[in-house]
Amino acid sequence: MTYPDPDFHDFDKDRDGECFSGGQVWAVHDILGAMPRFYAQIKKVLSPGFNLRITWLEAHPDDQDEIEWVKKGLPVACGKFKYGKSQYTDKRLMFSHPIDLEEGGQRDTYKIFPRKGETWALFKNWDIKWKSDADTHQEVKGFVSLFCRVREDGMDVFEIPPGELFRFSHMIPSFKLTGDEREAVPKGSLELDPASLPKKVVETANPEDFIE
Hints:
Order of helices and strands: EEEHEEEEEEEEEEE
Number of helices: 1
């Protein structure tokens, strides 16, 4: 994978070999846009070098529309998952970040949901009947991966009901900035991990457009 270096936070340091341990669940870059929408649990860390025994987590929804979504091979980053196949891997760069999960209602099932304070990408104009499309982001001009909250139609907060969890594309590692790092850095802005962003960010904005 190739991606630009961030301006401030070293996200690659957060996925050094020393960061991996047995029992963790990590987001893994997928084959559809290379975004971190796959999940794998680390079963064993082998040495010397970087070598892991992992078990994949596979989407396991109950809703019929969501089941059809999964059958079409569309991405799933939220909801219920079950254990899949296991394998060995020495490819450290396929891993993005560790994630939290909770046990599901059935044996060997788990639930992954967005948590307060996390940064997640959303599919634009999402609909459960629709096919995959690229998302857009509001980026600060002059920086590689700096983003801020913006108002749209007079609102900067909206709710996503439980039945629309597949609207979430993937979690993006983020680092909150104070505004003192450099000139023109908005206070409270977030630097997002470039490895978890689409190669083409189609919208840009000026700092005066942002809200704190």
